[in-house]
Sequence to fold (227 residues):
Amino acid sequence: MKKLAQTLFIFLVVSAVSACSLVKKEKQEESYKPTPPVVIKLPKEDNGAIFRPEMNVGLFDDNNARNIGDVLTIVLNENTNASSSANTSATKDQKVDLPSPKLAGDTVTKNGKEILNNEVEAGREFNGQGTSAQNSSFSGTLSVTVAKVLPNRNLIIRGEKLVRLNQTEEFIRFSGIVRPQDIKPDNTVESNRVANVHVMYAGSGAISAANSMGALGRFFQGKAWPY
Fold:
């Protein structure tokens, strides 16, 4: 009975963790959906003019993204190289010599050998070394939409690209802040010119599941497991 209760408890914990992960994933996918453009309704005026405010015609406007819902192409060009190393060495030696005390003007001996003569030696040594290195490279293109226009005209952008092949899904998600002056005439911007960049590349499906740890394994390998 006790074993059954323990099994049931572990099952409930794993189910709760999986449910929380599913809810978090759904909210994250929702935030990367395309942002629709804002429709501004102006009052219609029949004043006989050829151009009216509701026509929104810009004779000198370009095709670059500037409004909510506009599409912008990101040229991904991310290269990161990081390395660090540390070496520590410490040594300490200590020696104390205590000569034999004299009693009645003579040293204490036994069989001709001094028995109260003492000498203390202590040594301590420490050596430590650590090295860390990481290299990453990411390139490609991704089209996103403008989610918000800030008061200084900077654009908050986000979007994703999903590719499904057989039983595997791979997606890339991108978000950040773009200055209008960094957008090129062909409506593209380099990823290294985007502020507060968040890039996520992952996949799901049979191949991804084969390379990931199961929910029960993550529970026993996590911080909640005390042993």
Observations:
- The chain has a mean pLDDT of 76.
- Residues 84-131 form one domain.
- The chain has three helices and ten strands.
